[in-house]
Amino acid sequence: MKSFRDPVHNLIAFGEDDQLLIDLINTAEVQRLRRIRQLGLSNIVYPGAEHSRFVHSLGVAHLTRRFLDEDRAGEQTRGAYALREYRHLALAAALLHDIGHGPFSHALEAVTGIRHERFTSAMIRSKKTEVHQVLEAYASGFAEQVARLIEKDFPESRAIVKLLSSQLDMDRTDYLLRDALMTGAGYGTFDVEWLLHVMRIGEVQGEPEIGLDLARGQSIAEDYIMCRYYMYLHVYFHRLTRSAEVQVERTLARAAEVGADLPGFPAMRALLRGDLRMAEVNGVSAATAEWSVISDYLELDDHLLWSALRAFTRHEDPVLADLSQRLLNRHLFHSVDVHSMEEAERWLARMGRIAKKKGLPAASYVIFDQAGSQAYKDSYLGSDEHDPTFEQIYLFDASGNATELARQSFIVEAVKSRRASVSRVLFPREWLDEG
Amino acid sequence: MKSFRDPVHNLIAFGEDDQLLIDLINTAEVQRLRRIRQLGLSNIVYPGAEHSRFVHSLGVAHLTRRFLDEDRAGEQTRGAYALREYRHLALAAALLHDIGHGPFSHALEAVTGIRHERFTSAMIRSKKTEVHQVLEAYASGFAEQVARLIEKDFPESRAIVKLLSSQLDMDRTDYLLRDALMTGAGYGTFDVEWLLHVMRIGEVQGEPEIGLDLARGQSIAEDYIMCRYYMYLHVYFHRLTRSAEVQVERTLARAAEVGADLPGFPAMRALLRGDLRMAEVNGVSAATAEWSVISDYLELDDHLLWSALRAFTRHEDPVLADLSQRLLNRHLFHSVDVHSMEEAERWLARMGRIAKKKGLPAASYVIFDQAGSQAYKDSYLGSDEHDPTFEQIYLFDASGNATELARQSFIVEAVKSRRASVSRVLFPREWLDEG
Amino acid sequence: MKSFRDPVHNLIAFGEDDQLLIDLINTAEVQRLRRIRQLGLSNIVYPGAEHSRFVHSLGVAHLTRRFLDEDRAGEQTRGAYALREYRHLALAAALLHDIGHGPFSHALEAVTGIRHERFTSAMIRSKKTEVHQVLEAYASGFAEQVARLIEKDFPESRAIVKLLSSQLDMDRTDYLLRDALMTGAGYGTFDVEWLLHVMRIGEVQGEPEIGLDLARGQSIAEDYIMCRYYMYLHVYFHRLTRSAEVQVERTLARAAEVGADLPGFPAMRALLRGDLRMAEVNGVSAATAEWSVISDYLELDDHLLWSALRAFTRHEDPVLADLSQRLLNRHLFHSVDVHSMEEAERWLARMGRIAKKKGLPAASYVIFDQAGSQAYKDSYLGSDEHDPTFEQIYLFDASGNATELARQSFIVEAVKSRRASVSRVLFPREWLDEG
Amino acid sequence: MKSFRDPVHNLIAFGEDDQLLIDLINTAEVQRLRRIRQLGLSNIVYPGAEHSRFVHSLGVAHLTRRFLDEDRAGEQTRGAYALREYRHLALAAALLHDIGHGPFSHALEAVTGIRHERFTSAMIRSKKTEVHQVLEAYASGFAEQVARLIEKDFPESRAIVKLLSSQLDMDRTDYLLRDALMTGAGYGTFDVEWLLHVMRIGEVQGEPEIGLDLARGQSIAEDYIMCRYYMYLHVYFHRLTRSAEVQVERTLARAAEVGADLPGFPAMRALLRGDLRMAEVNGVSAATAEWSVISDYLELDDHLLWSALRAFTRHEDPVLADLSQRLLNRHLFHSVDVHSMEEAERWLARMGRIAKKKGLPAASYVIFDQAGSQAYKDSYLGSDEHDPTFEQIYLFDASGNATELARQSFIVEAVKSRRASVSRVLFPREWLDEG
Questions:
Q1: How far is B18 from chain C (nearest CA, A)?
Q2: PANTHER family of this UniProt entry (chains A, B, C, D) (predicted)?
Q3: Which string of DSSP letters, residue by residue, matches D113-158?
């Protein structure tokens, strides 16, 4: 029995049935998530947003268990049965779905060229991780099942995949509530008790599916979609957060370019030398991932990256030193919105001239940022490259017939066609007054 | 104009009148507080408690301004006048009162031998800090005034000292509310709106004093004292947090002993070599503090210490490597409560034998911890070494006569005589099964 | 000085400056609002929704004062000046805007044929009310000004009219927050701190206007519109609440028809005899309203109506007795949605036949209800019969230029064209199984 | 399946297993509780406190079900078994525990001379009530069991009695949270999630008992006791609420004295003629209670009493008319605290003289009030007339050994010996300036 107090869910308690979860929580790989902030660099704008991926992961496991344990009258469908059958699998996947995340999430992915999902899979499958060992001790072959479930490659049950990863899943439910509370931004709050109360397990084309009660669930689904929209607009795509993310990316790129190193931290060397990227070229799959790559990656956390930036302020390359200093003291790049390529190019040219005059590399100081084109995790707001059927939120009527939310809701219809994308040119604020 | 969203106060906005605060917030010394957790190692027990001293400092400035700007009908006393006179001073001191804090607060103080208050003073007085320069730009001699106010050496107004630092001050008000929310521990919540509403400015022996309305403020004062009592009992003195703090202290001590260093980080070397301690011997006062000491200290943050622990896991000294590994993976020492010196000595002897058998230094693995005897910041629960008149909470009746809360309240009387102290012996959990 | 504790705003305190408000609160007409529920019959569905119009009126005055007292940097516009000039007028109007409400608001209006606004005006202007006397004691002619302001006939300042009565006013702000909390329905919650923070006083076509900051206020305005939409959909138009409202209306109509009376309560007689309705024919204006009409109306409250229903359960007319019994024991009519006049007529005919067979008047038991066509107070969701310029929510950019929210926001555009109307046929549930 | 939204518990949902509860909720006797305010006249001070005994009763049933359904690892004790056996009994009793309450609770009891508990019992046992019929339809003899459980005459299980009625029961848990939220008083809030989490079923002297986990439950128990203490001090015993209660009592006494009646309301006549009191003389037991007494009593609700007061304002007895007017317009008696019988008598004599001079009955206008001596429902704060073992809160250690909270907690020890009693003399405020 292990209980946590939590600002979002108040009490998160795992009992005797959930010993597997408790054992997983105690692994080095899950404990590492304590050192990775959920919102990367957003705390630079929202000073309360210091929460870790660890507490988020606990929250997702908690919500998943609440959903699975809810007593839904009359739900004797195949889907409900399937979910009960896969209870431990779902809980393990809920807890572990983020273990591959590195510090400063998207900025780091831009440097390594590897999406964190690849590391999640590799950590679960690698025989050397504690997580793998705990899963296999629970049941032989269990690690492979968990990895496949997280990868959405789980034909045994689409419903359970969607519970963890779809437009309206337990992952998003936790992060919206948590990010809204911690940022204090007030936009992301919706009635999670009601949401869990009106969620349903139905069937679509003979397949078990997760959805909502048609009569009572449409408004909460709309509210949820709107919350997500606002959180993107105001928090995740915040102008200054994007500045910080872009600055981190360029600082690390510069560090790699000038061959910077941080003695005592082989992981940092691997990152900057591109060793992690090379691994990608060869494919980071369960079978082939070199343990050395995973073990280096496991050392990467917020502390190491911030410490590296601190050390780089004394680097002999003045560009690297300057870029690092700016991040530590929150001297963030100014950004101007541009509405056409011509406008972008005018700004890039103008600032490029200033950079040249100062003898500074434009690649480090003048950046064209298209946030919507980045690999953001959320696609409902725009188009979707994955299997689009995973993206549908179903509403079930009393007879079990399903309608898609966007067909039913003029609100969702209106939001769906919006792209929360931005095009900006970024550069040092003080350059505005020059040239 | 600058506004922050905050999970505790929702909106913290500083307007045109508060440009001084905005300038101070932008200094490197205040920005550094983003990298220092308010609760040091408590997040190891309460995973939500990741909030920084930066956001706490904003909260204290916000509450101080709310108190000062509250329109108190009929408060035409000298005290009220004095507070208005010192408005900017009070706000600056509220924001800066914690800038001297280092990472892992008390554990670090045990290593440096210097209390963080000394660094706060030194930073404010040192001509080279940005904070000093902003204060002096506002008014000549202002830095000295702010420093004296924080040091409680401000005979110009006892009331304003007490507003910032007394049994019921804006500092504690913010940290209780914030720590309660972030830990999720639920004990520290009290009605801050009512508290601000019933606070009064009165006089005691001809001196302006801060207090509460007698008729309407006693219960909220009691509730506040009880909240503080529970937060000490359950959060600040939590058994596992104390284990982590003690482990950090012994790990750093061991690192110093074996001459460990972290290349690229002169601050770490200064810390482990005792250079910061030596500074203390010579007195860190405004006049004499070496800039090098301050500038090294300014680099110490949570990131650096956690990164150092990571590097030390590979140190050639197996004791240092082991101690560091335990912290990173949350393998915390077990602790047993002891109720007499005899009992303590029995445990120390038994565990000392196991250490010896294993060839390990008992100083690093077997620890006698008396939390109450530590330099904890709160003294109302026990006795007080400072000027006891600063420790009194006054209740003012309609005629302005003051009574001390503890004389009026049987609850406070009951709590006051309690010491929330603990005596424990700590050692590795797995040793319980041996010897 | 008078302070109230409130579940919505926590502390509502009126100080020395607001003695006028305190005097108004103590009048019989304002105290009467304690006996009128804000949500009429909604508590029959949402059992927590028992809050009175009294506490709502305090809330509106509180929000108005917060808006007026907010220190808006740089707002030196004529509008800001006008608002400060009319401070006491705005506060009095905010407190008194609802004093004309009767019990079971819309159901009663259907019986009296008089909208509550008429009584509000009459009470403020009638020399015999305490409210009038307090207002005139404050300043001669003040009552007339307050009445005109509430009637939106206040050319001196459109801005102040809009602060109290427009799409985004302090009235709606309080009732949405309050109704959402009390019903527990969770849809109506928005961030009121942020809303007040981003509200602005600007100018449109040379006229002072209330609006929001363009850059920071659009999302909160959308959120507010959405909250209102959901509250209508789920709370105000709730199927069973409408049943209860319709049943009350038909029960009172039947009581009038059979000449029912309630000895000891002249107001009840006046209501049922249509004396209040006749007054309307002759015009309830400031000048002509008979004091006897107002004084009868002042006795109408929730208690009297519920007591009358109780007494009517023993009336010799079995229809009246039955209708009254159904309301007291919450035996609410069933309702079926109809999507065409043909469908409505089929149901009306079918249920009419059952009524006939039972010898019961169809007028009392079979009702065609078109909620959207009722005089609901909110028009933004549909079309508007009043001056449409009062209905516009402005967004002001940094230079003070105004845009209308619906032109700027695709969300509001989408909601605006929706009518939250319903067409239903209502009848006793048990009749479903017959004929 | 029936679900309610609730400001306190958010969602209260009764599912298929709880059809008995749903049927009981639909009875006339439970629906009547919608018309009785939980806090009687407290809304006269706390304008938000309009909540009904109906919503409180739902809350108690909800908490009881949460407690019973909580999965407590390893609780295989007899007590846990007993609780599961009596699940439906406990839930029915939880819902029905207050159905005997009349309007203005204690004021009415002073007039009828009958405690509401007697009516609760009589209603459950009387064959004519809907509640009785629903209970007997569930199981023969069930009504008698429910009545005995509520009367604490249930030797089958002390534990289940204590769950519903003891120092720390589900009734108090709901009303403290609810009254604190609705009054806005902020004192009664404690962490109910944690409370339910640390509650235990143990054994004391071979008997199953309800209690708390020793290691984790002491602080929450203390917090709960403190909340109760403050709610008594500030809300339940509020000076002005007591004035209103005393005024209601004297007004009804005067009405009885002058033979006032309210045509159309036989219940009012029965109340004022003392018919309900006479019934008490003959004993209101299950067997003997006249249906006419119960049926009259069932008509008494807040609406009827307020309407009677309205009608009495026109009564020919000027004293009754004046007393009624004062209540409706919130002209509450002034009260002075007295600290000795001499002081009381001085005030009584002085005000008696004024009454005499005015030709008014002192019995109606000058009152000596000793609130602590009233039959308040809570005894932990003072001494207890009932079986004192019902009053103990047990803490269970890991081995199941029980300690009483007051022996363990210095806080509870300190509060326990306090009597929240008051002695006051009440009279019309304007008399202060006379005589």
A1: 11
A2: DEOXYNUCLEOSIDE TRIPHOSPHATE TRIPHOSPHOHYDROLASE (PTHR11373), DEOXYNUCLEOSIDE TRIPHOSPHATE TRIPHOSPHOHYDROLASE SAMHD1 (PTHR11373:SF4)
A3: ---HHHHHHHHHH-TTSHHHHHHHHHSTTHHHHHHHHHTT--TT-H
